[in-house]
């Protein structure tokens, strides 16, 4: 048995969950916040049998896309007390996945 923790961008969470459900997998959704941009993420908990690992990972990978986003950052200017605001392009989205071995799982 495996427990998958998959952290996906909020924009991708609905599609990932829908595709997992359509393929017969149960998902528990937890709302979470990323520390880098402080934007919404969704953490998915998925309990599966060992042989289901690769199909589940493929579903997550196919439905969680990386994208670029512009964020405003403030930098120090050449003179004291002078600041400049610049746009910086960062990569967001995709998924971060942790797979843990589970000794036992029960549903009541």
From TrEMBL:
Pfam families: CdAMP_rec (PF06153). It comes from the Bacteria. PANTHER family: CYCLIC DI-AMP RECEPTOR A (PTHR38456:SF1). This is Nitrogen regulatory protein P-II. It comes from Ruminiclostridium papyrosolvens DSM 2782.
